[in-house]
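Workshop exercise sheet. Pairs work together: one partner reads the sequence aloud, the other fills in the structure field after running the prediction. Swap roles for the next sheet.
Pair: D.N. / O.F.
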Amino acid sequence: TSAVALTSLTISFSISLTISLTISLTISLTISLTISLTISFTISLTISLTISLTISLTISLTISLTISLTISLTISLTISLTISLTISLTISLTISLTMFLTKSLTL
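Structure field:
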């Protein structure tokens, strides 16, 4: 009877240990994987979005400023030159005509 009891105890212990280890490992792996994936995903998304936004904003601002400055300078220079030439030509023609008329009338 002691051999039967020992065998029964051994089997019972083996089954108990197997069930206990299986449950323990399943729970441990599930928790570990969930935490690991959550942390990994969060870090990955944060880095990815930060890099993406930084690059996107930098490129966008660079292009925007370049275009804006180019257009602004072009318009400014065009207007400035037009006004300057118009005034210069008007004054020059006025003086020239005045001098011509004065000489013409004097003679």
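Discussion prompt: The chain has a mean pLDDT of 94. What would you look at next?
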